């Protein structure tokens, strides 16, 4: 027997535990000084209670207890605080300012999130206050907590959901279209957003505003740009309050750490006003997030305005580990020292612009077009077309990381590369948390279901008799999603190449594979049964790099420019 902890769970040894403890104390002190009092919530909740809040931040671990109740390990603390305020504290006038340090537990959602399944969340909830001062207090406290932890060069991306909600409601577009737009915003998929906004469903001025909004970014001037974009359409909902909040944060000296960014629109159904996400250089995923969720407490029976944030202690530790040594505390004593060093936070931000931009470049059939696209966008691609066995080509200001196309999503999602190129098929298969920015148009191919020509009746008979068929593919996730939609039971066999061999040798009845010229299907006497999707190459970026590294936006514009 191997005595190992379950995947995603681990022991914390003393050196690290001491630093965590010290950091936790510093943050708790910081929250305490602002009048936030501690609370604790139970590890387990009845599943229905969590679901009543309308938003599950991540898939929870679930099990039945001996009384037959379906219980969940808390994936988040906010829902529990909402439940607590509307039940135990019902009738008490408030406002309440709560802080917590609690473990949360999350089932892995995809292969891409092979990471920890137990995290320590530190956060606050301010219940019963609303308006710009309360929002600024929440965002300001997040900044203070990150500074307290010694996180260098962090950025807080802030937006407000009212503007997009108003644009969607008044666009005259049907609910299904609005839902697709929201999905594109949630997934940070600018390519899908452009396609939707060009399809003529929404009135042109609204479509233009909806596609432009998440591209506006910057300081105070960005709020002005949003205003000019949406005020002719009568959609400035929440913008005045947002601007007031921004001014309060700028007055508090936070202008350098804050970036107005309307692409930060995840959990749209849940947030009702300001939203904030915290990013640090060198870290693939956000440190934490928060926002205003004025409607959530009503779901538990008592309506009160509310706002809060949480960040993960593990992410904060990782941010320090990837920061330059000047702003990285190495032990507990250094945490306090970092706190006292006002020059430290700037160092990592400076380091970001000094280090080369890392681009994942696919080898194989997309390689030549990728190099041509990057060169047309103005990058120095010298040596990239003939790298030999060298896997990283370093040119001034840029590192090209040569990857297998199916690996590009992992390199970018985990922050090993800032951005990259691969087929839409690879992105759909991996389902990574990245920002899809440009459809590069090359590498066009179609995903099809195919079977030996003339085998249709026998495959159908096979399915009728056995209730399942075998399908071979290199893309099990795309294939299983397709058959789920089709309502058909299949056994999927994952192969790594020459997929067409599977039905020819009797290993499987059908395949789901790429076709471009159709030559391979034709030469192997296979016929197309159905179309699954079409794919072209995409330029995409790490969510964190996209929001804090201006070079990604520049490269996006250059790639779009050269396409035009
Ligand atoms: N025959 C084709 N014509 C056009 N584009 C294709 C064709 N085959 C694949 N593609 C596109 O190019 C991408 C890369 O394909 P390629 O054959 O180079 O790598 P792969 O073998 O699929 O990936 P890996 O080496 O990572 O397993 C595919 O994901 C798809 O988007
Ligand atoms: O329609 P066509 O132009 O003939 O292209 C289709 C072929 O291209 C891809 O294979 P790839 O070249 O990537 O080799 P693989 O089978 O080893 O993955 C795909 O899997 C098909 O086999």
UniProtKB/TrEMBL annotation:
GN (gene name): hisZ
Lineage: Bacteria, Bacillati, Actinomycetota, Coriobacteriia, Eggerthellales
Location relative to the cell: Cytoplasm
Notes concerning its domains: Lacks the C-terminal regulatory region which is replaced by HisZ.
Broad class of enzyme this protein falls into: transferase
Database matches in Gene3D superfamilies: Bira Bifunctional Protein, Domain 2, Periplasmic binding protein-like II
Secretion signal span: none
Reactions catalysed according to its record: 1-(5-phospho-beta-D-ribosyl)-ATP + diphosphate = 5-phospho-alpha-D-ribose 1-diphosphate + ATP
EC assignment: 2.4.2.17
Record pathway: Amino-acid biosynthesis; L-histidine biosynthesis; L-histidine from 5-phospho-alpha-D-ribose 1-diphosphate: step 1/9
UniProt organism field: Raoultibacter timonensis
Designated name of the protein: Multifunctional fusion protein
């Amino acid at each position: 027997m191997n005595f190992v902890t379950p995947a995603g769970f681990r022991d914390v040894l003393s050196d690290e535990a001491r630093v965590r403890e010290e950091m936790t104390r510093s943050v708790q002190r910081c929250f305490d000084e602002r009048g936030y009092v501690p609370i604790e919530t139970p590890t387990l909740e009845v599943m229905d209670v969590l679901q009543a809040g309308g938003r599950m931040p991540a898939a929870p671990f679930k099990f039945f207890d001996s009384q037959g109740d379906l219980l969940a390990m808390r994936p988040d603390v906010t829902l529990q605080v909402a439940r607590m305020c509307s039940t135990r504290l019902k009738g008490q006038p408030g406002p309440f300012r709560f802080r917590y340090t609690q473990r949360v537990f999350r089932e892995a959602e995809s292969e891409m999130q092979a990471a920890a399944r137990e995290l320590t969340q530190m956060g606050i909830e301010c219940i019963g206050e609303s308006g710009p001062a309360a929002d600024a207090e929440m965002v300001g406290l997040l900044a203070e907590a990150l500074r307290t932890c010694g996180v260098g060069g962090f950025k807080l991306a802030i937006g407000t959901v009212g503007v997009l909600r108003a644009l969607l409601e008044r666009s005259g577009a049907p609910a299904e279209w609005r839902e697709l737009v929201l999905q594109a915003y949630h997934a940070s998929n600018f390519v899908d957003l452009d396609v939707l906004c060009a399809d003529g469903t929404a009135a042109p001025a609204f479509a233009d505003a909806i596609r432009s909004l998440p591209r506006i970014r910057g300081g105070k001037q960005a709020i002005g740009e949003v205003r000019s974009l949406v005020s002719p359409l009568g959609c400035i909902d929440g913008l005045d309050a947002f601007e007031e909040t921004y001014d309060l944060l700028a007055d508090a000296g936070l202008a350098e750490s804050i970036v107005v960014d309307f692409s930060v629109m995840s959990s749209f159904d849940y947030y009702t006003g300001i939203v904030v996400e915290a990013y640090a250089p060198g870290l693939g995923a956000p440190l934490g997030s928060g926002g205003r969720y004025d409607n959530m407490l009503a779901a538990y029976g008592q309506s009160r305005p509310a706002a809060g944030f949480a960040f993960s202690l593990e992410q904060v530790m990782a941010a320090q580990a990837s920061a330059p040594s000047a702003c990285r505390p190495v032990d507990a004593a250094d945490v306090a020292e970092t706190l006292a060093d006002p020059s430290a936070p700037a160092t990592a931000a400076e380091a970001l612009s000094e280090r080369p931009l890392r681009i994942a470049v696919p080898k194989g059939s997309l390689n030549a077009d990728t190099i041509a696209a990057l060169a047309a966008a103005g990058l120095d691609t010298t040596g990239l077309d003939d790298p030999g066995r060298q896997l990283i080509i370093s040119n001034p200001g840029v590192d090209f990381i040569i990857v297998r196309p199916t690996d590009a999503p992992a390199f970018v999602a985990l922050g090993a590369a800032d951005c990259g190129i691969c087929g839409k098929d690879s992105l759909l298969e991996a389902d990574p948390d990245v920002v899809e920015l440009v459809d590069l148009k090359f590498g066009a191919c179609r995903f099809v279901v195919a079977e030996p020509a003339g085998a249709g009746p026998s495959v159908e008979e096979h399915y009728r008799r056995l209730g399942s068929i075998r399908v071979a593919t290199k893309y099990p996730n795309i294939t299983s999603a397709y058959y789920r939609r089709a309502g058909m039971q299949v056994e999927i066999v994952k192969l790594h190449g020459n997929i067409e061999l599977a039905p020819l040798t009797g290993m499987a009845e059908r395949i789901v594979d790429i076709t471009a010229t159709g030559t391979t299907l034709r030469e192997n006497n296979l016929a197309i049964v159905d179309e699954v999707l079409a794919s072209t190459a995409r330029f995409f970026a790490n969510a964190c790099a996209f929001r804090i590294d201006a070079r990604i936006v520049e490269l996006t514009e250059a790639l779009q420019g050269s396409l035009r």
